[in-house]
Amino acid sequence: MHLTRILTGRSWIPLWKRKIPPYPVYVQGNPQNRIFLPMFWMKMVKLELNSPPDFVEFIVHPQMSKLDVKQYLEKIYKIQVLNVRTSLRQGKDVLHPSEGYIITREDDYKVAFVQLGDGRTFEFPNIFIDKSPDEKDMELMQKMEVRGKKKYEKQYDRASLPPWFR
Amino acid sequence: MAASLVRFKLIKFPPNFLNYLYYFTNRRHYSAHVQLQEEVQEVEYPPIKPRWPPGQVWGDLSEQNAWKIHDETQNIMSMPTVAERIKHLTSNENKIALLKTRRYPKNLWYFQDRTKTHLIDGMPDLYSSMDGVSDLDAVVSRLRPIIIDGIEMEHDKLERSRLFWEKSKKDMIAARLLLKQILLPVRGYLSGQNTHFQRSRFDENVRVVAFWDKYGAKHKRIQTAYDRNKHRKRNIDEDIKPVMLNEPYLYRFQADEIVPIQIRVERPLPEFVPLNSELCCGDYPHFDYSPIVMGHRTVKEKHACVPGFNLGDPCEFGQLSILFSNDSELMYLKKCYGDQNYREALIGYGLMTSFIWNVSQAHFQGFNTFLELTYPFTTQTIASDGQSFSFFAYQLNTLQLWKNDKANPRRNLCWSSLDNKLYETVENGKVKGFSDDVFKTLLKFLSLKPVDRGVDLRPYLPKDKPLPVDCKEYIPKTVEKIIVEEKIIYDESRSN
User: What start-end ranges are recorded for coiled-coil regions in this protein (chain B) (predicted)?
Assistant: First the structure.
């Protein structure tokens, strides 16, 4: 949780990133505690690799196990799950804007690959069919920069001449 | 301008000032006189190389790589022995995609693509033609009481509970004992009639490994948290590439198995379908994703090619390999993913083991990924737990899987029939519902005679050199010499 500390300036972590409080150990004969609203969460993302249509990828709370992922989908959303694989991913490096060295790293995260059962398939929707307005502006900016550079490069050898004769 | 520069340097006397003396010498003379040389009429050009190497259809490959393969084939052809060829192919340590045959569900589709096989329900026509020729009914009636007695003895009369101290292997040990009770009397009886069976080899717990190259889809590298080489952001294509090629869609695969029981014979089995037939060319299920998607991993290992025997063994061809359908990994798969997925996984297990065994046998006859097969290789496999038998028959038609489908339209074939029960139950120490049909197919698998194919079995190996022999003489042979120093005759009447 390095990045959050740096951005906030103190050791405060948002609730959804926090560690899950330890569950009391069950001893036979005691009343069994039940958690109705656990701190688990799952975020569906687009698959990194090309994969068959019955695969879905999630970014999950790093403390969730394979069984947790399976039960989360089966009991809340009533979707049958055949198989779950999980893997831990390293966060990307955050570079200094001008110098280029590494300041920090983004938080590590857990990925769950879920294979759906019952012959169910899922296709991730294409949210931005056209490019987003920010991306469009960025592309225009880059184009203009290149065009200006090319104009300027033509005048390198005539730099000593007054502009009238260039 | 230039003169002033030189003067400046002469005054200063740099360490390499002797070089500047060059300008003051009168070595440079130019003149307008040119000595005329006689023109050479015959123009010499370098020899023209054809664009593609001759002899094969190359398909999607680039010209550079096609020439590389062409040179490699000639390099391998120059090696006279099989041992040298396998050592050359397995010398480099590269990354390979290790296929786990009974680990993940819904992998049959994937295995079919990687081995380029077409699945067929039921058994080939060769077995149905065996009914009329050989009198199997007489053999069945002779052997039925012996086998029923063996099954009953395993179930009730013998107490082997002390053997089963390992819970995970309990069922497998029971299956091994039961199968031996069925196989050994059959083997003893049939060896009287079939001469090939007398010289066959019966092995247990044999390691079978093979590697091959396959045409596939492009991959992408992902950076994981526990990646050792995280500073090297490479594509995954670079990792799984075959030894010499730089094509992005070619990958090397390897699979490793331990087969419980194997039977080998001296000559190859008859081919189920001739190579010219329409079945051998055609379509097969395609899977254009990376092996990582299904959970398989890439490992840096030495390649290996092990068919289960050493070089120079007299029995170099496979008759039958027996697997356990109640293998501990398969049963775990059944428990997690259900019965339907277990059946698929069982077919995949039988398919992969028979494919690997065929490939490694072909390597020992001098064939490679570069040297295409001239005749098909065939094997039979049985997966059983002693009660239910599932039969497989496999025919290997191609080894050049690195070629495009247009360039190499051939495919491999696999026949399968699942869940044939030999008997229904054992009640009060007696077998009930013994089926003769299943027992007859088992007899057919065992008594299928190897034939002379009428082809050269080792076309790519030189015929002058003697083949290797497996047996070593650890104890040197001693010849007894009888030296007679003095002949003594005790009874003269007997000597004559």
Answer: none
Residue of A nearest to B222 (CA): A48
Query: How far is A83 from chain B, CA to nearest CA, in Å?
Result: 8
Whether B332 has its CB under 8 Å from any CB of chain A: the answer is no
Task: Report pLDDT for B234.
Answer: 46
Element (H, E) at A115: strand A109-116
B105:A82 CB<8 A: yes
Q: Could you tell me what percent of chain A has a pLDDT over 90?
A: 41
B75 — phi, psi (to 5°)?
-65, -45
Closest Cα of chain A to B229: distance in Å?
A: 13
Positions in chain A whose pLDDT score sits under 70: 1-11
Strand B93-99 and strand B117-121: pairing?
unpaired
**Amino acid at the residue B103:** R
In this prediction, the residues of chain B whose per-residue pLDDT falls under 70 are 1-31, 132-134, 161-166, 217-249, 495-496
Backbone dihedral angles phi then psi of residue B439, each to the nearest 5 degrees: -65, -35
What's the pLDDT score for residue B6?
A: 52
pLDDT for B20 equals: 64
- Residue B225: list chain A partners with CB under 8 A: 87-90, 108
Contact list, A48 vs chain B (CB under 8 Å): 220, 222
Best B218, B294, B296, B297 member to test A by mutation, with max A CBs in 10 Å, is B294
From the list A48, A82, A108, the residue facing B225 with the nearest CB is A108
> What pairs with residue B298 in β-bridges?
B97
- What's the token pair of residue B285? 């299920």
Say if the Cβ atoms of A51 and B289 lie within 8 Å.
Answer: yes
User: CB neighbours of B47 closer than 8 A, spacing ≥ 6?
Assistant: none
Phi-psi label, residue B28: left if phi above 0, alpha if psi -120 to 50, beta otherwise: beta
In tens, the pLDDT along B398-429 reads 999 988 889 999 999 999 999 999 999 999 98
Q: Residue A23 — φ and ψ, nearest 5°?
A: -85, 135
Tell me which of A49, A89, A110 to substitute to probe the interface with B (most B C-beta atoms closer than 10 Å): A49
3-state SS track over chain B: CHHHHHHHHHHHCCCCHHHHHHHHCCCCCCCCCCCCCCCCCCCCCCCCCCCCCCCCCCCCCCHHHHHHHHHHHHHHHHCCCHHHHHHHHCCCEEEEEEECCCCCCCCHHHHHHHHCEEEEEECCHHHHCHHHHCCHHHHHHHHHHHHHHHHHHHHHHCCCCCCCCCCCCHHHHHHHHHHHHHHHHHHHHHHHHCHHHHCCEEEEEEEEEEEEEEECCCCCCCCECCCCCCCCCCCCHHHHCCCCCCCCCEEEEEEEEEEEEEEEECCCCCCCCCCCCHHHECCCCCCCCCCCCCCCEEEEEECCCECCCCCCCCCCEEEEEEEECCCHHHHHHHHHHCHHHHHHHHHHHHHHHHHHHHHHHHHHCCCCCCCCCCCCEEEEEEEECCCEEEEEEEEECCCCCCCCCCCCCECEEEEEEEEEECCCEEECCEEECCCHHHHHHHHHHHHCCCCCCCCCCCCCCCCCCCCCCCCCCCCCCCCCCCCCCCCCCCCHHHHC
Here the ipTM equals: 0.73
Rounded CA gap, A8 and A4, in Å? 6
